[in-house]
Design a protein that fits this description.
78% of the residues lie in helices and 0% in strands. It has 264 residues and is mainly alpha-helical.
Length: 264
């Protein structure tokens, strides 16, 4: 394994190849994402600790989809057992992966706490008001125009973006390459920074996919005279795009660390 510096245009290839790989086994990948959502729903029902466990499980989910993507490239059919296999490696690798899970949950909770501290609860107030559905338009506009809300959102997205760098490749580096948790976090950060051009193009590619889908869907349903159906189509489309995003993660790891993806 060797850290590579790849051209920026490879970011678009990651998005394109993810769709190609997804459509090799669309039902399998959709089933994996459905299992993840169902498990997340059950875990979220646990009082108090549910949200923490859900955050801690995300590195395992990321690794599971990477393993599934690699399996499809090798001509195999992925099943939900990939999420279990992620925790069935060597003891040292399993312990390192669990350390990543704890660190990710703790860091995310810290970001949420700092953001709530900065915005003074403005985001929570807005969400409660929107959920209740009883606020007037003026009250909603007043909440949206609160400068603390904008500052809190900027802090949330900014810190979440920074947090994604060390954890982007870390689960794969622990499981596939046998690195320790600390070494994997460092290697992932270095890989993302060294290939920041490719990741910037990759991010812009996903933004373009979402915008193009929204524009075409609005146009299609407007021509049908049923613009309200756009909301119905948005949910399954969002789930599919989220699944394809997870499918794309293995290619980013394989290219950044010089691991040629296996082809069936």
């Amino acid at each position: 394994m060797k850290l590579q510096q790849i051209p920026a245009r490879q970011g678009i290839a990651w998005v394109r190849n993810a769709f190609r790989l997804f459509f090799r086994q669309p039902l399998a990948f959709a089933g994996l994402f459905a299992v993840f959502l169902f498990a997340a729903f059950l875990v979220a029902l646990l009082p108090g600790i549910g949200s923490v466990l859900l955050l801690a499980a995300l590195p395992v989910v990321t690794l599971g989809f990477m393993m599934a993507s690699r399996s499809v490239r090798q001509g195999e059919f992925p099943t939900p057992k990939v999420f279990v296999q992620a925790l069935r490696g060597e003891r040292t690798r399993t312990v390192a992966l669990l350390k990543l899970c704890v660190a990710y949950a703790a860091a995310t909770l810290l970001i949420m706490w700092l953001s709530d501290l900065v915005d003074g609860g403005a985001l929570d107030a807005l969400m409660e008001t929107m959920a209740a559905g009883k606020a007037t338009q003026e009250e909603q506009l007043a909440l949206l125009s609160d400068p603390r809300l904008k500052l809190g959102l900027a802090l949330r997205f900014g810190l979440a973006g920074l947090l994604s760098l060390p954890f982007w490749h870390a689960p794969a580096l622990v499981h596939f390459a046998g690195q320790s948790a600390a070494q994997a976090l460092f290697s992932s950060t270095l890989a993302c920074w060294r290939n920041k051009g490719a990741f910037a193009v990759y991010s812009l590619g996903w933004v373009a996919v979402v915008l193009v889908f929204g524009l075409l869907s609005n146009l299609f349903f407007a021509l049908l005279g049923q613009p309200q159906l756009m909301l119905v189509a948005a949910t399954p489309a969002g789930l599919m795009l989220s699944t394809v995003f997870y499918v794309s993660l293995y290619d980013t790891y394989a290219d950044c660390f010089g691991i040629e993806p296996a082809v069936a």
